[in-house]
Amino acid sequence: LTPSPPSRFGRVYASVGDLELAGLALRGDREASGELVQRATPLVRALVRRMGAQPALANDVTQDALLDALRAIHTYRGEASFASWVSKIAAHRYAKRCRHDARYALMAEPLDVEAHDPAAPNPGEQHDLDGALATLSPIEQLCVSLCHGAGFSHGEIADSLQIPLGTAKSHVARALAKLRRHLLADTRSRQGERS
Amino acid sequence: VNDRDFENLLATEFAKPLKHEPSPDLAPHILARADNGWRLRHLVVAGAATVGGAVTIGMVTTFASLDAVARALARLLAALPGVGIAPVAALCLVLTLAVGLRSRVV
Asked: What is the sign of the dihedral through the CA atoms of A160, A165, A168 and A169?
């Protein structure tokens, strides 16, 4: 979906699949581990930020999740991309933190949707998901990111946050309705600009 | 846009990196932490093996026979508060089997 960042771990690994890299990492190939980490970091960190973590906390959770993944690399089966696999681990870790310390949700820092990153793709090519997420309450942001970002079921969200299943479903439904309004309005306004 | 299409759109958008916030290069920190964790685990295992080996050698030389070692260990474990009968019984069973096998071999 998105171009991988340029590899620092040797050109030979840039074209190697995640499962093969995991096999090499399991045999102690440090460069293969580095390549896997470099591939997964942007997506894993983006998910944790979208769940509501502050930048420094998102870095910590991403690091811890990637370390967990490298330690458990023998259990990676390649059914999803390595980044998706680590995203689930990171989502579990962040949900656990939120469960134990409600301050994380209260301290959530909205994504900086105004700043311009010159390396970012042309905004016209992307929907403004981050702007739409910023309009949600912290718990709605967390639940919808767990559901549609990390692929958790409603039951898994309820278990990981220790909230009733009905509450998890309501948060996801409310968040989806708000995102739908925001993103589709965004799409319509862009289509209007083009015509 | 129907629900399924919208959910697919969301999944696609979630799979993209942040537009306005570049991701820091965490790879050197993660690899350094992984190396340190590996070293620490090996150090702990090596330390435990050394201590365990030293204690076993010490007990065998002190009590002269595996049978005596079994009885001494059982007494020691039973004396420890909070240790139930099950681990003591399991240990006795294992040591008795070891003694039995040793006597068969010898």
From this structure: positive
